[in-house]
Amino acid sequence: MRVLVEALYVAAGIAVALVFASLCAWAYPLAKQDVWLVTGVAIVCVILMAIGPMRRAAALDRARREERRNG
Fold first, then answer.
1. Where are the bilayer-spanning segments (predicted)?
2. pTM given for the model
3. Domain positions in the chain
4. What does the pLDDT profile of the chain (71 residues) look like in tens digits?
5. Which element (helix H / strand E) includes 41?
């Protein structure tokens, strides 16, 4: 369950970055390529920053499943 929550946070971060980038590219068409380049880097950063929390969430979910099995 925790992994799902973390994945939703990552998806929300990526969605917000894409919406923001499309608005910026629309507002300033001369910098369209730069806006999308920076957005791509930001999305990669969001994904890289999510690795640690995803691993911790997976470990906690695994521990909870083992606890339920061993009861």
1. 7-29, 35-54
2. 0.83
3. 1-70
4. 999 999 999 999 999 999 999 999 999 999 999 999 999 999 999 999 999 999 999 999 999 999 999 87
5. helix 32-49
